[in-house]
Structures are given as structure tokens and as C-alpha cells.
Design goal:
The protein is mostly beta strands and 121 residues long. The protein has one domain (10-120). It has strands at residues 18-24, 27-32, 36-40, 44-47, 53-56, 76-82, 86-91, 96-100, 109-113, 118-120. Strand 2 (27-32) and strand 3 form a beta hairpin. The termini are close together.
């Protein structure tokens, strides 16, 4: 699928906590306690409560460290969709994780909801 669909059911993540962050060759996997897993293989950015980017997608060889640990065990308090460009999850810490569809020719994200469906963006 090209673009973030306006009806992507990301509200399922609201009230759930980020349980794990897995770093793989195919991207970063954000695993939530009950809602599911978001695998970002394209551009993602993590903003602090002041709107500053504190972490983002980049090549492993160019990275000194990840800073996404700050949202571990934090509850998702709200979400938003900017179709077809991106979707965001806002955490109880004030951080915002935004996942972008920045490569129309490639899959940039997979959202696997517990119990279905799986949405490939």
C-alpha cells in the first residue's frame, strides 16, 4: 500500500505501553503490550515534549547510539494521522513518535495489530 491510510486503526495503541524496542537490519520494531507491533523500515522520528528531534532513522554505520529507550514502558496517550504522509503516537512522557511513508516505491512500515489486521505501508 502506498501512503498512510486515513482509517489506519492506530487508536488501538492508545492506553497501551511500549514493551520492547527491537533493532534489526530491516528497521526498528516497536512492540506494545497488547496492541501489536510497528516495524519502521523507513523514516521515523522521536520528538521530545518541546518538539525537538531526539532520535530518528539513520544508517546503523552512521549512528553512535539510539535514544528511543526514553519511551520504554510509557503509555500511549493519543495518536494522529496525517494521511498519506505519516502517523504519530504521543506518549505519557510527552514524547511523540512519528512514522513516515517517505519512499513511495518501497514498503516503509508494517503495523501488525494483535488479532489482526496487518497493514503494510
Amino acid at each position: 500500500m502506498h501512503g498512510v491510510p486515513a482509517d489506519l486503526p492506530i487508536q488501538r495503541f492508545v492506553g497501551d505501553a511500549l514493551f520492547q524496542v527491537r533493532i534489526g537490519m530491516d528497521g526498528v520494531h516497536f512492540a506494545f503490550g497488547r496492541a501489536g507491533i510497528i516495524c519502521a523500515s523507513g523514516l521515523w522520528e522521536l520528538y521530545d515534549s518541546d518538539g525537538n528531534v531526539i532520535d530518528r532513522e539513520q544508517e546503523h554505520s552512521d549512528r553512535e547510539c539510539y535514544r528511543i529507550h526514553v519511551i520504554l514502558n510509557a503509555d500511549v496517550t493519543s495518536c494522529s494521522i496525517d494521511a498519506p504522509r505519516s502517523f504519530s503516537l504521543i506518549f505519557s512522557t510527552g514524547h511523540r513518535l512519528t512514522i513516515y511513508d517517505d519512499m513511495p516505491q518501497y514498503e516503509t512500515c508494517t503495523v501488525s495489530f494483535e488479532g489482526g489486521p496487518e497493514v503494510i505501508i
